[in-house]
């Protein structure tokens, strides 16, 4: 999942495809992307079947890129990222637009609810445990993966700057998940994840600088901003386990303590209280 989605251009191209972009020029007009980067990402998205490349003209050959069920089902994660960045991240060159739910006509904020009991859920009442195919060792990167430099952000990173400090780096993603399940101390992050001390120190510094974690009492705690990232994490996990199932069973099992059932996240409109659908979400001009 992180191999596919830990790249901001990929997320932005899929987002534009979900909003109706289909042709090369439409993506180019909508995003501050170079021809080389756009061509590369469209090729990789087609190869991984996240977009379907179809020829609509033969002379000269022209292609369009259509959403597939795989990319269409990313809308809960993308909606959660948009809301988190809009509400919690202030260093955008321009404010991110609000969202409108065409089902009720109102501007809205998405809320995560449990599919089983329909009650709103948060990181405080969802418990995670490893499934048959899961472990810290299988969730962290190999030694050859390097962190992208935060000091050399592309034009895309201006749009989702802090989200990409989490999902654009596997060590950071693993450490934030660990914080959600109760890990607090530097030595615990290092021992459980098997991470080099410099890696742990670097990611903890990034998270504290961005206000996602706060240090104190001999450890690190999630802030309100950090806890608000919960919808992004659970929607990403749900997407990953749907499209990359293991024959051994799920990697992570989530339980909603309020109802005692397995937790499957659903997004709901905070205005009309109805379940959201991706096709009903539009940015407010």
Automatic annotation (TrEMBL):
The keyword DNA-binding applies. PROSITE patterns: HTH_HXLR. Residues 1-93, 156-248 form the HTH hxlR-type domain. This is Transcriptional regulator, HxlR family. The keyword Transit peptide does not apply. SUPFAM superfamilies: Winged helix' DNA-binding domain. GO terms for molecular function: DNA binding. Pfam families: HxlR (PF01638).
